[in-house]
Write a structure and sequence with these properties.
Shape: globular
Distance between the termini: 9 Å
Structural class: alpha/beta
Strand content: 5-15%
CATH topology of the largest domain: TIM Barrel
Length: 287
């Protein structure tokens, strides 16, 4: 998934529009985008839509944090609609992920669904404690489809006045959180998805930051507005130059079987470059 578009769970008139926005997936939100008083209404609307609407793209639901009184009611309300996945916010450590995995196993069994059929995407850096326990997110249940992170709640947790420098780039603490997410995902063998960009009017800035995300190793990005989807997709789609390079690399290695390192266009390449080329071509197939 290159993009996952958030939609407030108490705005059902936006659900179909989000699914038709071109985003690779939609996240119906029961957490930060919905005030507590409206969560029962949001649960009902999400459950009805999941049960009755056509889904041109995967539909995920963000529940509330494990330690809240809302997490289990969120799951119980939406599970019969068979969402494609659950987004888990404010995961404090790997134990929270395994706890939700267990809850989902029970609910899947009740519904007669195969174990692990509902995906799970944890946000792993939304508190200082979680950031310091990033290594605990490297041993994950098989249903985990990736890891992502959040900067807004982290800023609130540490008492910061903001999380970005005047040029719009993340300050050191949040750049470190992004890196920890990327490293934890790589160690766990799952994709890493970059956090949301709060800019919704400047598509050029959104695309520039998304390209930076891709260069660092992220495979996609969360979005909060349909206007962000196109620039995110552009950023996460390989260029023709990259595709030609990847094809030449793989052809060069195929022409030298049994060779660990080869001379290539004035330089030397070895196994990591094969993986890089394969990843570029895989990115093209996702378009």
């Amino acid at each position: 998934m290159r993009s996952m578009l958030f939609v407030p769970g108490d705005r059902p008139e936006r659900f179909a529009k989000a699914a038709a926005s071109g985003a690779d997936a939609v996240i119906l939100d029961l957490e930060d985008a919905v005030v507590p008083a409206r969560r029962p209404y949001a649960r009902d609307e999400i459950a009805q839509w999941l049960a009755n609407a056509e889904r041109p793209v995967p539909v995920w639901v963000r529940i509330n944090a494990v330690e809240t009184d809302d997490a289990l009611p969120d799951l119980a309300a939406v599970i019969e609609g068979r969402p494609d996945g659950i987004v888990l916010p404010k995961a404090r450590d790997g134990a929270d992920v395994h706890r939700v995995d267990h809850w989902l196993e029970v609910l899947e069994a009740r519904l007669g669904q195969p174990r692990g059929s509902i995906g799970l995407l944890p946000l792993i850096t939304e508190s200082a404690g979680a950031l310091l326990k990033a290594a605990s997110f490297t041993a994950l249940p098989p249903r985990v489809a990736g890891l992502t992170w959040g900067a807004e709640d982290l800023a609130a947790d540490v008492g910061a006045l903001g999380n970005k420098a005047p040029d719009g780039e993340f300050e050191l603490t949040y750049a470190m959180a992004r890196s920890f997410c990327l490293l934890a995902a790589a160690s766990a063998g799952v994709p890493a998805y970059d956090t949301v960009d709060t800019e919704i009017r400047d598509a050029v800035a959104v695309e520039r930051r998304a390209r930076s995300s891709r260069r660092q190793g992220f495979v996609g990005k969360l979005a909060i507005h349909p206007a962000q989807v196109a620039p995110i997709h552009e950023a996460f789609s390989p260029t023709e130059e990259e595709l030609r390079w990847a094809e030449r690399v793989l052809a060069a290695f195929a022409a030298a079987p049994g060779t660990g390192a080869i001379a290539f266009e004035g330089g030397m390449l070895d196994k990591p470059h094969i993986r890089q080329a394969e990843r570029i071509l895989a990115g093209a197939r996702r378009r």
